[in-house]
Amino acid sequence: MKTKYKKIIALVFIILMSLSIVIFWDEIKQLESYGYLGIFIISILGSATIVIPAPTIIATFIGGGIFNPFLVGVISALGATIGELTGYIAGSSGRSIINKEEKLVRVEGWMKKYGLWTIFVLAVIPNPLFDLAGMVSGAGKIPVWKFLIVTLLGKTIKFLTIAFIGAGSVGVLGSFINK
């Protein structure tokens, strides 16, 4: 019985944290002024929201134009991977939700068919379905270390790409401004 209450408390905590991040997003964005640490924290918090999109991509894009894009991409990927644990925890806490939500059932089918490749592909492509993959992974008892490694690999590709696009955009915009 205690385990059931712990799972319910964890799920409520994650929902409240997600709502708080969305409500206070303007204040959180001010962390960008703290450089790499700010980008890391924004990536954690932005990825910690469940199914509610938070603009971590914007922080990575802008950060890539200001700082070393390789470091920004890696730091963003690390932060986002840590933040994605909320979906994993929600899935391990609320298995009954997965049976009822159509999109979750679809992601669960992909997981059964393609396994960890589903997590990898969803981590590479900017999309809101990744939270669902985290939930399915937690509910499906995929070991957390496997989830984290595959997520980090996919997020690293995504955020390195975004950071380098941001770095390149600064040069292009600068050439137009200086004309």
Which features does this protein show?
179 residues; single chain
SSE order, one letter for each helix or strand? HHHHHHHHHHH
Please state the CA-atom Rg, rounded to the nearest Å: 17 Å
In terms of structural class, how would the helical and strand content be classed? mainly alpha
Number of separate strands: 0
Q: What value does the average pLDDT take?
A: 78
Largest sheet: none
**Overall form:** globular
First-to-last CA distance:
69 Å
What is the domain total for the residues? Answer: 1
**What's the number of helices?**
11
Kindly report the oligomeric state of this protein. Answer: single chain
| Unreliable runs | none
Q: What does this 3D model show about the protein?
A:
By secondary structure, the protein is an all-alpha fold. It has one domain. It is 81% helix and 0% strand. The chain is built from eleven helices and no strands. α4 runs antiparallel to α5 (69-83), α8 packs across α9 and α8 (102-114) packs across α10. The longest helix has 34 residues, at 144-177. It starts with a helix and ends with a helix.
Question: What is the structure about, briefly put?
Answer:
The protein has 179 residues and is mostly helical. It has helices at residues 2-23, 25-29, 36-48, 56-66, 69-83, 85-93, 95-98, 102-114, 116-124, 130-139, 144-177. The longest helix is centred in the last third of the chain and has 34 residues, at 144-177.
